[in-house]
Amino acid sequence: MSAGSGLLAASLAGFHDWFSWVVMLANTAAGAWALGADLRPRWRGWPLWAFIAAAQSTIFAQVIVGVVHQNRSGADPGDLHRLYGFAAIAAVAIVYAYRAQLAHRRELLYAGGSFFLAGLSIRAMILS
Length: 128
Fold this sequence. Notes:
Layout: H1 3-39, H2 46-73, H3 79-97, H4 106-127
Helix pairs in contact: 1-2, 1-4, 2-3, 3-4
């Protein structure tokens, strides 16, 4: 591995570690806001859904950075760490798939999904 590759791998590793906190905190906040919106209808609206979309987008960014880091550095985060990352992507898709069936409880669906994503990110952080 060249010096440039080593520096890139170290930078990706540092970003992946730091960004894991962003993923966890963003999804926790999205879950709390969605839960509050279920109780207080005035908290609903496009800002909530934009924030949830941004929080869930952090999952995809984190997984992409993790895969690139693993490919560049040859680091092995372990099978469970990878499982939690890809399970988070699947969870986003599952929550999205149920949005029509649970339209009357959409805020609760996204609150539970966001808290689940935050839990997966915590678990992945513990394993690394």
